[in-house]
Amino acid sequence: MKVLLLGEYSGFHRNLKDGLEVLGHEVQIASSGDGWKKISSDIDLGQTLSSNWSKWTRIGRALLHRQKLINNDIIHIINPYIFPRKWNFNDHFIRYLVRNNRRSFLMGAGDDAFYWQIARKKLKYGRFEDIVKYDAKNGKIRWMTQGAMQWNRELAEKVDGIIPFNYEYTIGYEGFENLRPTIPIPVNCEKIPYAPNCVKGKIVVFHGLNRYGAKGTRHVEKAFEILRKKYPNDLELVIDGGMPLDDYLHFLKRVNVVVDETFSHSWGMNAVYSMALGKVVLGGAEPEHMRAVRVRETPVVNILPDPHDIVNKIETVLEQRDRLEEWGQRSRCFVEEIHGHVKVARACAEQWNTD
C-alpha cells in the first residue's frame, strides 16, 4: 500500500512508518515535526509558530506539496488540526485530502474536541483544569468551542475509521460506528538501545517537563520536595525538559526511574520510550486502559495526581532498589511484546483494510 501519515505525535508516526516499511508498504510522513521535538519527516510542513509569516509559510508548503499528499491508498491523520486555521485553511485542506486519497483514518491522539468535551466527563480524573490554569494562553482552549466540535465531528464521520491509541480517546469517540479497536503505541526497539538499569550511588528519578499543567508537574514538584528531605542520600530527583526527542532519549540513559504523567489513565509515548530503554516507569496504568489495549499485566506503576501517592510509589521503588535491573528488563520485554513497531503496524494495516 501507498500510505501517507499526516502529522506527528512524539514520534508515533515515525515508529509506525518503520513498522509499515518492514511489511513492504510505501510510506511518507508529512508533518511539522511536533514543534520543539523536531521529529524528522519526509514532507516538511513548516514550523508551528504563532506569527502570521509562519502561518503563511505553512499554508504555502501545504499547497506546494499537495500532489505528494494525494492519490495514496491510505491517509492516516493524527489529529483534526494539522494546518494553520487562518481562513479555515485547515478544515478545507483536510477535506480536500480526504476526498483525494482512497481511504482515510483519524487517530485519537493529542488534544481534540472529543477529548475535551466528551471524554473529560467520563474520566475519574483529568488534566483539563490544570491545562487551563497553567498552559493555555488567556485560559482559552480552542477545543472547547462549538466550532471545534463541529469540525471534529465532521471529520470523524467523514473518515473510514477512527483509531484511538489510548483509553481516553476510546471513550471520547464511543458511539461512532466507524470507531476501531485501540491500537498500542508503536516503538522501534531496534533504534533504542537497551542497557541494564544499574544504580550507581543514588537512584536517579526523572520527570520530563513538557506542558506543566498537562503532565501534572505541580504534583511531582511537591512529591520531590518531600522526598528530598526524607532521602537526601538515596535519591537524585530531576525535573527537566523542552529537548528535541533524540536529545531527550539520550538524556534518559542516566536515569533509573521515570515519573510520567500524573493525570493520565494510560501510559503514553514517553512511558513507552522509557521502558524500551529499560527504565522503571511511574505513570498512567488504570485497569480501563489495560482492557482497551488488551493487556493483563504491565510493569508501569500506576500513580494518581496526588503528591503523597507519588511519594508512596517512589518509596516502594526505593525499597526494591536491588531489583531495578530485573524490573528494567521486564519493561523492555513488555515494550517488545506489546508495542513492537512491526506488530502494531500490522494491526493498524489490518484496520485500514477492514470495512
3D architecture notes:
The protein is of the alpha/beta class. The protein has two domains: 2-188 and 341-352, Rossmann fold, CATH 3.40.50; 189-338, 3-Layer(aba) Sandwich (Rossmann fold), CATH 3.40.50. Helix content is 41%, strand content 14%. The chain is built from 14 helices and eleven strands. It has helices at residues 12-22, 52-64, 89-99, 113-122, 128-135, 146-158, 167-172, 217-230, 245-251, 269-276, 287-292, 307-319, 324-338, 341-352; strands at residues 2-6, 26-31, 43-44, 74-77, 103-108, 161-164, 203-209, 235-241, 257-259, 280-283, 301-302. The strands form two sheets. The chain has a six-stranded parallel beta sheet with strand order 3-2-1-4-5-6, with helices on both faces. Strands 8-7-9-10-11 form a five-stranded parallel beta sheet, with helices on both faces. Strand 10 (280-283), helix 11 and strand 11 form a beta-alpha-beta unit. Helix 1 (12-22) packs across helix 14 (341-352) and helix 10 crosses helix 13. The radius of gyration is 20 Å and the shape is globular. The chain starts with a strand and ends with a helix. The model has no long low-confidence stretch (mean pLDDT 94).
Derived structural class: alpha/beta
- Euclidean distance between termini CA atoms: 16 Å
Order of helices and strands: EHEEHEHEHHHEHEHEHEHEHEHHH
Provide the number of structural domains.
2
CATH architecture heading of the largest domain: 3-Layer(aba) Sandwich
User: CATH class of the largest domain, please?
Assistant: Alpha Beta
**pLDDT under 50 segments (min length 5)?**
none
Total helix count?
A: 14
**Which range best describes the helical content: under 10%, 10-25%, 25-40%, 40-55%, 55-70% or over 70%?**
40-55%
Biggest sheet: strands side by side, in what order? 3-2-1-4-5-6
Shape: globular
Overall residue-averaged pLDDT value: 94
